[in-house]
Amino acid sequence: MEFQDLVRRRGMVRAFRPDAVPEELVRKLLGNAVRAPSAGNLQPWEFIIVRDEETKRRLAQAALGQTFLAEAPVVIATCRNMERNAGRYGDRGREFYSLIDASFATLMILLTARNEGLGACLVGAYRDEEVWRVLGLPEHVRSVGLVGVGWPAEPATKAERIPLAEVVHRERFGQRR
Ligand SMILES: Cc1cc2nc3c(=O)[nH]c(=O)nc-3n(C[C@H](O)[C@H](O)[C@H](O)COP(=O)(O)O)c2cc1C
Fold first, then answer.
1. What spacing in Å lies between the alpha carbon of 28 and ligand 1's midpoint?
2. Is the Cβ–Cβ distance between 102 and 44 less than 8 Å?
């Protein structure tokens, strides 16, 4: 898909057909995810591919009962390994850069999914400790997003955006021209 179309047509998909998503497509999503920029190229991301029905069900439960997550054939949990960039960047790496880097990687997954004709939805509303337990995350690895991926059973959402004029400033905050 042409880049401009891809960006404009990306939108969350929250209903999936039950058909399997081949592993090679998942590899493609993750192969692009790791092309995301990261502070000092330290790449603090970790990804957990979840296909097990019971694990997906528990994740959906931890995500405040967002059942569509369990209906996605694959859930990719994007995580940040906070120790990977703490050595060089200390607390800033641990708390700030790791989150930005893993978020960029997550966006790459969303865009690549759309480009491959897949649907995806990022879920960030979940009870942290429940997700950490379900995924067996060690102390230094924290979840960032749960991305449900599958063949769309509905069109991607067309969520409106706040007009640019309201969010763009010139030279200083609050200055419009
Ligand atoms: C940090 C973050 C957390 C989100 N959490 C959820 C969620 O828990 N459940 C959900 O259905 N959508 C979630 N979303 C998706 C947003 O609702 C969605 O991106 C927004 O409404 C704009 O729609 P669009 O991405 O389809 O353009 C989340 C998005 C972000 C960036």
1. 22
2. yes
